[in-house]
Write a structure and sequence with these properties.
By secondary structure, this protein is of the alpha+beta class. Helices cover 27% and strands 41% of the residues.
């Protein structure tokens, strides 16, 4: 009986393992029309590691720049990662990644 309970517990834990989603759509999180800057961000947690699909953000930044009257959007090199929450062991459990775009033309 004990083995059956252990097996059931392990199966229940495995079912909570996630949905297999590996991509995340970054969202527009700020910017300045006057300065021609668009900011996109993506948030992930320690327990649901996902990879942001920055190609979606690239297209969205271009659309935003065009709506402001600019011809193109170029991405600044690199991105900024900000830890939003730490656990009691000092590990970052929630991270926000920001990517900046400059509108040109």
């Amino acid at each position: 009986m004990r083995n059956l309970t252990l097996l059931f517990g392990l199966l229940l834990l495995a079912a909570c393992g996630g949905n297999g989603k590996t991509d995340l759509k970054p969202s527009e999180s700020g910017g300045s029309r006057a300065e021609g800057i668009v900011i996109h961000s993506s948030t992930k947690s320690l327990f649901t590691p996902v990879t942001p699909d920055w190609t979606i953000a690239d297209g969205s930044a271009l659309d935003r720049c065009r709506s402001w009257g600019y011809a193109r959007a170029s991405e600044y090199t690199g991105s900024q990662e900000i830890c939003r929450q730490y656990d009691r062991h000092g590990r970052c459990t929630i991270t926000t990644t920001k990517r900046y775009y400059q509108c040109e033309g």
